[in-house]
Amino acid sequence: MNQESADNQTSSHGSAEEESFSSYGMTAGEVIAVTVLNSGISVIGTISNILVILAVLLNRQLRQTCTAIFLINLSFFDLIICTVYAPMYIYDINYGSGATFEAVRFRMGFGLFIGSLNGEFSVTLDRFISICLPYCYVAWMRKICITSVVFASWSIAISLTLLSLLTDTPLYSFFYIAVIIILIISFHVAMYLVSRREAKRIASQYPPECQKFPFWNKSAKAVAMVAATSLLCWVPIAILPAVVAPSSPSFKRCIKVTLAFTSLSAAVDPFIFCWRLSDFRLALCACLRKVRCMIRQKIK
Q1: Which of 28, 123, 189, 290 is the one with CA 20 to 30 A from 8?
Q2: What one-character DSSP code corresponds to residue 164?
C-alpha cells in the first residue's frame, strides 16, 4: 500500500512537472528553431566578444581611446549572455526547469540584458559626443566621466533587477527598453546628419564634378544596421505587453520566443560597434600575429 502511494506521488509529481513545462505552449518547430538560433548566438557571440576584449586589452592604441572602456563594458555583458545565459535558456525550453532555477535564470537574464542595453547606449553616447560635439569631447570624456557613465549603467541594471524581485512581470522594464532604443536610434540619425553636412561642406570646396554624395555611405549603413538590429532584437520584447496582456496564458510563451531575438543582440553588437571599423580589424590582426609569434617561440 505504501509502495502504491509512493508510486502515485511520483507519477503525480512527474505529471505536474510535465504540465508546468508544457505551459510554455511552444510548438516542436518553435523549440527547434529557438534552440538552433541560440546555439549559434552562443558560439558566435562568445568568440566575437572574446576577440573584442582581447583586441582592446592587447592593443595600446585602442586602450588609449575613451571608447575602449565602454566597449569592454558592453562586451562583458554580451559575453556572459552568450556563455552562461544562452545555454541555460536552451536547457529551459527543451527540458523545463524548477521554480528556483527559473527564478535565478530570469533575474540574471533580466540584469544582463539591461546591462547590455546600457552598454550599447554608452558606446553610442560616446560616439555621438565625439561627432556632434567634438570640442566638448576631450573635456567631457575624462576618466572620471567615463567611470561615472560605466558606474551608472551598472547601477541602473542592478537597481532594475532588484526591483524585478517585487513582481513577476516588471512592466517598467519594457518602457525603459523602449526609451533607450529610441535614444540610440536618434543619436545615430543625428550622427549621420552631422557627418553628411560636414561632407557636403568639405566637398563644396572642390569642383562640381568632384562632388559626389552617395546616400548609401558608411554613415547611412551604420544607421541602417543599428535601426535594423534594434527593431529585430529589442522592439519585440519592448512592445510585447501592449500586444499580449501579461495576464494572458500565452504571455509566457511569447516571452520565451522574443527572448531568442533579444539574445541575438549579444552576438551582433561586436560586428556593429567594432568589426565594421577598420581600426578594430587591424588591431585584431596585430593581436593574432603577436599570439602566433608567442606560440611559435614557446614551441621552439
Answers
A1: 28
A2: G
**Could you give the CA distance from residue 230 to residue 264 in angstroms, rounded to a whole number?**
10
Q: Which three cell numbers stand for residue 176?
A: 525603459
pLDDT at 10 over 50: no
Q: pTM, whole model, 2 decimals? A: 0.80
Quote the cell numbers at residue 170: 516588471
Write the pLDDT tens digit of every residue in 174-191. Answer: 889 889 999 988 888 888
CA distances to 15, 107, 113 from 45, in Å: 37, 21, 14
Task: State pLDDT tens for residues 142-184.
Answer: 666 777 888 888 999 999 888 888 876 777 888 898 899 999 8
Q: DSSP letters of 181-219?
A: HHHHHHHHHHHHHHHHHHHHHHHTTS-GGG----SSSHH
Name the 3-class secondary structure at 300. coil
Asked if 38 and 263 touch (Cβ cutoff 8 Å), the reply is: yes
| 67 compared with 265, residue with greater pLDDT | 265
CA distance 168 to 109: 13
Residue 194 makes CB contacts below 8 A (sequence gap 6+) with 131, 132
